[in-house]
Amino acid sequence: MEEIERVEVVPDTSLLSKISKAGYSISQSISEFVDNSLDARVEGQLLNVSIRIDTDILAISDDGKGMTKSELKDAITLGRSTKKNMLGEYGLGLKTASFSLGGALKVTTSTKGDPMEYSVLIDEDEWSKQQKWEIQIRTIKKANASSHGTEVEISKLKLRPDRHLAQLRMDLGTRFGPFIAEKEMVLLVNQKPCVFREPNVEKTTRKEFSLGVPHGTVSGWYALLKKGSQRGMYGFHTYRRGRLITTYDKIGFEPHPTVARLVGELRMDHVPVTTSKREWIKESAEYKEAEDALNQELKEILRLARTKSSEERVNKNVKERLEILKEGIYEALRSPEILSFDKPEANVGSIPTSAPLQEGLIETRNSPSKVSDPKPIPQKEIQRTPRKVQNPRSNIVHIKGRRFEFEHYYSPLGEDAKSYEYKVDEKSRIVDIFTNTLFPAFEMTHDQAFYAFTHIVDSLADLFLVYSGEPRERYDEIRDTILRKASEYVEDLGKKKDKNE
After folding, report:
1. Are 4 and 69 in contact (CB under 8 A)?
2. Are strands 137-141 and 402-411 parallel, antiparallel or unpaired?
3. Please, what is the Cα angle at 382 between 377 and 388, to 5 degrees?
4. Could you tell me if 149 and 110 are in contact, meaning their C-beta atoms sit under 8 angstroms apart?
5. What is the mean pLDDT of residues 197-220?
6. C-alpha distance from residue 90 to each of 59, 152, 267 (Å)
7. What is the pLDDT of residues 136-171, one digit of tens each?
């Protein structure tokens, strides 16, 4: 005999206290209240939000639409929200943020034309003693029937937000920058305004963009800072429906010291976020398609960032000499010995599991002593104006049917980093090779062009091995072939130059 019994699974009242342990910072908690104010703004009118902070009370008031008694009940109910496609759509922020800041929450609200205002008080200690999910809503007559808005007051503070007022204004100015910049909202902290500050960028590099993707639109702008940040303060501030989700997000590109100038803003209203609204759901199809679209959009600005990083570290003569040496590499890559790596009948195979190359690889197999192994090409043989190259795409490498384009940059990777490294973008098949200008040997060498030349050769030799499936023992053979062919070509150029003179 089978019996079915229906039972209630109402959460224990202690849940209200437990949700406060969500790891919110002060600015993140207060942002939840500002989100609610923005959701309640009166269309066509400037929204005024005032935050008052002292040692034992934090209050946030606005002149938005306010709430009816029924709406106030919904606002206090955990997980309930009638908002669709708005900032506060999950129905958790008010409660979670309030009790992460303090032990008591009071909400007072009224709508325009209603002669009454409504308030509710929840004390965390008193609430934990009761067994029912019940609240008391107080109704009183207000002095001005035309007034409207909401005030949230947090007492029994667990933190000291009054000690972080300057930082709070800066954080809120960044988080709600789009609304402040468009003059849709005035946001005050202890009567001082939060200001949105534009980053100091090179104006000629700034670009507005809008990318159509299957589920929506990814839009915003990007540019290069006048001075790069080596503390990670580059990337995108990302917004969803005007609310900041992440700061300095490296979405659409791999973080690296050579691209530490890239900054911008992204608006991705259709991409889902976690209930805390502090992270994108990266596993979602919407996020992945946005990431792929940005990866394509950012190619040129990233190349420009790397170029600028390179230009700051070397002089014109070094760059000109390296261009001649690179012509030798281009010629070497056309030699039968190297072209054989693209033949299908050769040892074709998948990338060996022992190879270090993965998506977003930074390969760094080098030894400083390698720089002095080959005989340097005399300076006189490469001090000339570069010839016009017939094939402008001569920096292309073909390996077992795969087509790669490589570029070289002089870049300050760090004193503790390797002397050089290379990085492969699996999607675009672009290989970026970096000579570390902060490595001690860079300043010691008398030929910085040849120093970089060996880094390019070493990186390409390793690339051939990784993508051809050839044994690692062939590295020296491949490297020496490229060096020999390139050196012979550049030496021949020098002899022809001397003969013509």
Report:
1. no
2. unpaired
3. 135
4. yes
5. 94
6. 22, 18, 20
7. 899 999 888 889 999 999 999 988 888 889 989 988
In sequence order, the 6+-apart residues with CB closer than 8 A to the CB of 417 are 436, 438, 439
Angle between helices 285-297 and 299-311 (to 10 degrees): 50
The yes-or-no verdict on residue 16 having pLDDT over 80 is no
Tokens of 166: 């300057």
Spell out the residues 6+ positions from residue 233 whose beta carbon is closer than 8 angstroms to its own. 248
Does the structure show a pLDDT above 90 at 229? no
Q: Domains along the chain?
A: 15-193 (3.30.565.10), 203-307 (3.30.230.80), 313-500 (no CATH)
Residue 496 CB coordination number (10 Å)? 10
pLDDT, one tens digit per residue, over 336-393 is 888 887 765 444 443 333 333 333 343 443 433 333 344 455 554 444 444 444 444 5
The average pLDDT across 493-500 equals 72
Pairing of strands 235-240, 262-267: parallel
10 DSSP 8-state letter = P
pLDDT exceeds 50 at position 480: yes
End-to-end Cα separation, the chain, in angstroms: 108
H/E segment holding residue 321: helix 316-332
* Strands laid side by side in the 216-224 sheet: 207-213, 216-224, 262-267, 235-240, 243-249
